[in-house]
Specification:
269 residues; elongated
Length: 269
């Protein structure tokens, strides 16, 4: 009887362990299946967006920028070599076809890893926002390297006539508007699209940084426009905006903290 009870106890434990293992296996399998479904949904969305771009059903520039970021995010997540960088119908068709093949190759475990990466704030920021953010930094940092057009305009026109100054204002303003200002808008759109992936602290850091860069760019535009048809030479008057410098430095600090916490901070930029 004692041996029978021992055997029964051993069998009970064994079956319990088998039950736990079975539940864990089912749970893992379910997660993998869900990940595969989600990735397929994202791929289908991209395929539809690609068709709209090729057929020119939408605002091409705005739609393309969003599509490019969405495509490259999924591509990076599934470890595909396909990337979208420019609006070219043939290239768009080839890249989406190849991405579909790469997605179809994923097994359950690979799909789960890919979807985890796809929804990671680190991946999202690095793929869809980081390059544009660093372009904005270069355009507002105030160093004399010709990337900050507010500063370079000042030095380039130290000995210019009012006529030359007036002539160069519009193209410089357009360059800023279509360059860093536009890129910052793209970052804002991407952050809005992926808000749920970021923590409250991360959102506050990134949004505060963007407000500071916004102010810097707005100050650049206002300052350059103020040089038109002025009575006093702006280059001999003290019109330096210390508030702009403070907001820029604050923005850099918030962005550095944000990128450091994500683990994507560059040693120097």
């Amino acid at each position: 009887m004692k041996n029978s009870r021992k055997i029964a106890a051993v069998l009970t434990v064994a079956f319990s362990l088998m039950g736990c293992t079975s539940k864990e296996s089912i749970s893992k399998s379910t997660k993998q299946e869900e990940a595969q479904k989600e990735i397929k949904i994202e791929l289908t969305f991209l395929q539809n967006e690609c068709n709209r771009l090729i057929n020119k059903d939408e605002d091409i520039e705005k739609t393309f920028q969003s599509y490019k970021n969405d495509f490259n995010l999924l591509s990076t997540s599934v470890n595909s070599t396909e990337k979208v960088n420019r609006m070219n119908n043939d290239e768009l068709e080839i890249s989406i076809t190849n991405l579909e093949k790469d997605v179809d190759k994923l097994n359950g475990e690979e799909a789960l890893k890919a979807y985890t990466k796809y929804t990671s704030p680190k991946t999202i920021y690095k793929v869809t926002m980081m390059n544009n953010m660093h372009s904005v930094i270069e355009a507002t940092r105030g160093w004399d390297d010709s990337k900050d057009l507010g500063i370079s305009f000042f030095y380039d026109h130290l000995h210019s006539s009012q006529e030359d100054i007036n002539r160069d204002i519009k193209p410089t303003v357009n360059h800023i508007t279509n360059g860093p200002v536009y890129k910052l808008h793209i970052v804002k759109d991407e952050l809005q699209k992926h808000r749920d992936a970021f923590s409250k602290e991360q959102l506050e850091q990134l949004e505060t940084a963007m407000k500071g860069f916004d102010y810097s760019l707005d100050t650049q535009l206002k300052t350059i426009r103020s040089y038109k048809n002025i009575v006093n030479n702006p280059y001999t008057s003290n019109n330096y905006d210390y508030e702009e410098e403070e907001k820029y430095n604050g923005a850099r600090t918030y962005l550095t903290d944000f990128e450091s916490n994500l683990g994507v901070a560059k040693p120097e930029y």
